[in-house]
Specification:
The protein is built from 12 helices and 8 strands. It is α+β, with helices and mostly antiparallel strands and about 280 residues long. The chain has a 5-stranded antiparallel β-sheet with strand order 1-7-2-5-8, sandwiched between helices. Strands 4-3-6 form a 3-stranded antiparallel β-sheet, with helices on one face. Strand 3 and strand 4 form a beta hairpin. Helix 3 crosses helix 5, helix 4 packs antiparallel against helix 5 and helix 10 packs across helix 11. The longest helix is centred in the middle third of the chain and has 26 residues.
């Protein structure tokens, strides 16, 4: 079984781990820090240019495509990779406030630019985790790894919160502000509402306009973001709560267990019972 934290040595290794684990192990959150150089990367249908000072935070569910990150290996590029099992990631953030907003925003906007101070801080955390993973297992090894992981995740949340806060600036496009408010609604709703009209009405726009905005900002329709959000919350409940499957079907607004099971199978690749057995 793959450990909760893996440090890939190349983009090819990171891509193989990320793409194959989505179906087999519930997926990984992939984090990549570009300390120097730049590279191109295709994520699902969108192409990104990642340069010095950028960080990639990619929750499971996407597809990592071609990249030239390994082409200049040994040259001037310095790229760090960290892959965290989604289940371990969720366990680390359960006590955090407003973390779901951050996770959803990272899912739709995975590349951010770090300040020099933030880049130094994240690189230092990376080196500590890398060093600890290389040591022999001993007393409190797992507890130390979990604590380090939680520190990294909350530091990243601080960075992403700052990014979200920048969207309140009056000079930022109104579309970006609307997108941020939509992301916050998704997080606060806990995955219980699937109707696009519900969100559009609350934001005083038409469903068509809301979808146009989300497609412009992150490349995904509002409907797809809603369903991704519902699926993420369902997975968390199946893995970490003791609620029965029938109870969860009611909680998430499904008319019966059959429709709930079909949704889970379609979005998460496994039946509710199969996901629960992996707890």
């Amino acid at each position: 079984m793959t450990p909760d934290i893996v440090i890939p040595q190349s983009m090819e290794e990171a891509r193989r781990l990320y793409n194959t684990a989505n179906a087999e192990e519930g997926g990984f959150v992939l984090i990549s820090i570009c300390d120097s150089g730049s590279f191109n990367l295709r994520i699902s249908r969108k192409k990104y240019r990642i340069s010095t000072g950028d960080i990639l935070i990619l929750p499971p569910g996407a597809t990592l495509g071609e990249s030239d990150a390994d082409a200049a290996k040994g040259g001037r590029q310095d790229i760090k990779y960290l892959a965290v099992k989604y289940k371990a990631f969720l366990q680390s953030i359960r006590s955090g406030r407003n973390v779901w907003t951050i996770l959803i925003y990272a899912r739709s906007t995975p590349v951010f630019h770090l300040s020099d101070a933030d880049r130094e801080l994240t690189s230092n955390y990376y080196r500590v985790i890398e060093g600890k993973l290389r040591t022999q297992r001993g007393y409190y090894y797992d507890e130390i790894i979990r604590a380090l992981l939680q520190c990294v995740i909350f530091e990243l949340c601080v960075i992403l919160n700052r990014e979200l806060g920048m969207l309140e600036d009056s000079n930022v496009r109104s579309k970006d502000v609307l997108f941020k408010k939509f992301m916050e609604m998704l997080a606060e709703g806990g995955g219980r509402e699937r109707a696009l009209k519900h969100y559009a009405d609350a934001l005083f726009v038409t469903p068509k306009y809301l979808s146009a905005v989300t497609s412009d900002v992150c490349g995904l329709s509002a409907h797809e973001l809603i369903l991704n959000n519902v699926a993420s919350h369902i997975r968390q409940e199946l893995e970490f709560s003791s609620k029965g499957i029938k109870e969860l079907a009611v909680q998430f607004g499904f008319p019966n267990m059959s429709s709930f099971g079909k949704f889970v199978k379609m979005r998460l690749g496994k039946s509710p019972r199969a996901i629960r057995k992996e707890k």
